[in-house]
Write a structure and sequence with these properties.
The protein contains eleven helices and no strands. It has helices at residues 2-50, 54-73, 83-90, 100-113, 121-137, 146-162, 165-177, 182-202, 220-249, 254-271, 280-284. It has 285 residues and is mostly helical.
């Protein structure tokens, strides 16, 4: 009986902590998403209105700002994306330092608003994971729940970013946790529930105006074809990114390497303006 009480108490603390983490991560993802969209629109409109050739240079402005911020403000400490989360999960004594929150937040914001193309998804995921890791370090729940708290943060961040609690839940379970058990389901479900409430009250506008009504079974073959094409595109994109990283790795000078990449992106944006800022405005249009 006493053992059941202790287990129940730990579950209650896990749910409570997951809810608090989800609230913090939902607010963070919401602010990053809408602040990025607003500033990106203002800069893009001003640049096109003044001289379209500025689109070539704007990604360089963003990437240069990030370069010097990392060098001076964040003391040259690197951001390695989702691999940082895997490392802290595999090595329980390794933690995500708090500077990852402002670092990824600012990096994602500056990259997109100046037309760059890394998006704010990875920034949101790592920052949200850091919130969960911080709650774990502060011992808001049992020591065994590090993965659960990190996944709760990721669930809320991704859910609010894409206005889909299910997407957040699946991403946390499949990509971050890479396994399933009772406590993971409890933590992620609690975070997804909070995210659903947050989206319902604060962020329920549609990304696309089209409304899907009804279901036609004869559409199934088209969905299969679409899935195959999407999978092929994903594989192609992954191969392209790895090849480009290898190519740019041959350039020894960091400043030169990042700015060559930024100018290449700017050139593409000049000819295809809808690419600006990872197509946040182009998709709607």
């Amino acid at each position: 009986m006493e053992r059941k009480k202790i287990i129940g108490h730990h579950y209650l603390r896990l749910v409570t902590t997951s809810v608090l983490i989800a609230v913090a991560c939902a607010v963070m993802a919401y602010s990053l998403k809408h602040l990025t969209e607003y500033i990106e629109h203002q800069i893009y409109t001003a640049a096109v209105g003044w001289h379209r050739a500025l689109l070539v240079l704007l990604p360089t402005v963003g990437i240069t700002a990030i370069y010097f911020l990392r060098k001076w403000l964040f003391k040259n400490r690197k951001n390695k994306g989702i691999t940082e989360i895997y490392k802290t999960l595999d090595l329980r004594k390794d933690h995500l330092p708090l500077f990852k929150i402002p670092s990824h937040y600012i990096n994602g914001l500056l990259t997109v608003v100046f037309g760059g193309s890394t998006g704010i998804e990875v920034s949101t995921v790592v920052a949200a994971a850091t919130v969960g890791n911080y709650a774990y370090e502060r011992e808001f729940s049992a020591k065994m729940y590090k993965r659960e708290l990190i996944c709760a943060g990721v669930t809320a961040g991704v859910a609010v970013l894409f206005c889909s609690p299910l997407a957040g839940w699946l991403f946390a379970m499949e990509v971050i946790a890479r396994k399933m058990n009772k406590t993971l389901v409890i933590a992620c479900t609690a975070a997804a529930a909070v995210s659903w409430l947050f989206i319902y009250y604060f962020d329920n506008t549609r990304l696309l105006s089209q409304v899907v009504a009804g279901w036609q079974w004869q559409a199934m073959p088209y969905f299969v074809v679409l899935s195959l094409l999407s999978g092929g595109l994903a594989v192609y994109f992954t191969l392209l990114v790895t090849r480009m990283k290898s190519l740019f790795a041959r350039i020894d000078n960091n400043f030169l390497r990042v700015n060559i990449g930024a100018l290449a992106v700017g050139t593409f944006i000049y000819y295809f303006p809808s690419l600006y800022g990872d197509s946040y405005h182009g998709l709607k249009e």
